[in-house]
Description:
Blueprint: H1 6-14, H2 26-32, E1 48-55, E2 61-68, E3 75-81, H3 95-105, E4 108-113, H4 124-138, H5 140-143, E5 145-155, H6 157-171, E6 179-183, H7 194-199, H8 207-217, E7 241-249, H9 253-265, E8 270-279, H10 286-304
Parallel strand pairs: 3-4, 3-5, 5-6, 6-7, 7-8
Antiparallel strand pairs: 1-2, 2-4
Helix pairs in contact: 3-10, 4-6
Amino acid sequence: MITLRKEAVQYLEAQRTGTPYYKVSPQEARAMRTVTQWQSAHKPKLASIEDHKITVRDGEQITVRLYTPVLGKTLPVIVYYHGGGWVYGNLESVDAGCQLLADQAQAIVVSVDYRLAPEYPFPTPLHDAYDSLVWVHNHMEALGGDASRLSVAGDSAGGNLATVVAYLATALEGPSLHAQTLIYPVTNVDFSTVSYLAYGEDYGLDTQAMQWFSHHYTEKANFTNPLVSPLQLEEVRNMPKTFIIAAEADVLFDEGLSYAQKLKAAGVVVEHITMPGLIHSYFSKMNYFEEATIETVTKIAQFLK
């Protein structure tokens, strides 16, 4: 029997009122959400935080936010993709975590505001994610980054994008990656695992919510597409070293563990850890999960170093 941390209990209690977001339109769901504000005494002093417009493959522009901890040094670079089921989330929703990560890892963090479904369904968010990595790689010297220490990271749907981007980078002979960090990632669009049965209701990310997200992201016929469900990839032996962080009480727990096992069986260096007593999406909810977010960032920084 899992014992939830008190902050998880408090968060879940606060969410019990109102209409579930997956019972309204994506546009209404976005309007219902409030951006997590930084409420921490641990806010780091970074050298700079800057937004840049970059052009992606269809000629459109998206925004990336650069977090630079110090100037005058050549630093590792982490390209970060936010969560939100490919339907919502933005630069603000992971701003707190990205600031912490830049400080603790002493790395330039590039947070990507990829376009969202259903207005921009698969593969547009993935294309934006990959094109952002290529842009960072091509501008590494100007950013003050070390090309030998380029990594990708993301939470939830952002973790899905991060690892598919890592696969594409190897398959397309694109940028060479030092590592990938996946925080409770979506790796298989399949709602029948044991963790779905155990945590599919009242644990923050309901089964109905994941079905809602997935159907907005792409049509059902694509659910087994390896670029949507990377657990279905046939060839993963060239993936970079991998850090997977699981929330214990999460519908996505089993698929994250299965993905870690698949990579490890292929010879990839993998570390998989479980954050006990925590629920999905804690990383982007600093106002409830400050201690857990700091703990997670510390573990990521240690892994990357």
